[in-house]
Amino acid sequence: MPLERTVRTGNNLGLRADNIVGTALIGELLDPGKTLWIVSGWISDVKVLDNSQGAFDSILGDDPPSVCRLSHMLALVAATGTRVCIATRPNPHNTVFLEHISEAIRKENRLRIIRDPNMHEKTLCGNGWIMTGSMNFTKSGMGNNEESVTYRTGDPSVAQAHIDFRARWKESE
Fold first, then answer.
1. Per-residue 3-state assignment (H helix, E strand, C coil) for 69-99
2. 122-157 b/e (C-beta count within 10 Å ≥ 16 → b)
3. What mean pLDDT, rounded, does the chain reach?
4. Of residues 77 and 172, which shows the higher confidence score?
5. Can you give the pLDDT at residue 165?
6. What span, in angstroms and rounded, lies between the C-alpha atoms of 50 and 20?
7. Over pLDDT 90: what percentage of the chain?
8. Which of 136, 135, 132, 137 is nearest to 158 (CA)?
9. Contact at 8 Å (CB) between 56 and 64?
10. What positions does the domain Phospholipase D-like occupy (predicted)?
11. pLDDT the model gives residue 63
12. How confident is the model at residue 19 (pLDDT cuts 50, 70, 90)?
């Protein structure tokens, strides 16, 4: 049965999106798919999961960090056998993150980076779920800006997003 939740974040509401992203990626670790897509014009190596209390130690490996950054979580997902595809703008702002993720995921067949100068979409799409909306995967987008993010599971739009991304960037399964 399809489920959907829209969350509006920002300082005025006191809500942040980092925990939503972190929780979605934990779900992907527990039930990995073939491909995880992260599509965003602007992307940084933001904090996505607070593990300071050790709540996720059993999931995060032998030396679990107290704070997980996006590159670390994506590397863990890739280690399950999932291919991580990142589509972003060819902009110096994104370079630091792309260097971190390239260092974290060394197996070339597990990481694909697409630089698209027309990128404006903001989506994270995994195995049976999609998170899409106005939020870039940056500190401002996930913490300070007022954003709207919709999270869907069990919806045909998830499969359609995977099909569309593969076709757009000529990605094989």
1. EHHHHHHHHHHCCCEEEEEECCCHHHHHHHH
2. bbbbbbebbbbbebbbbeebbbebebebebbbebee
3. 89
4. 77
5. 95
6. 11
7. 61
8. 132
9. yes
10. 95-169
11. 78
12. confident
Summarize the confidence of residues 44-72 as an average pLDDT. 81
Pairwise CA distance, residues 40 & 122, whole Å: 4
The count of other CB atoms within 10 Å of the CB of residue 59 is 13
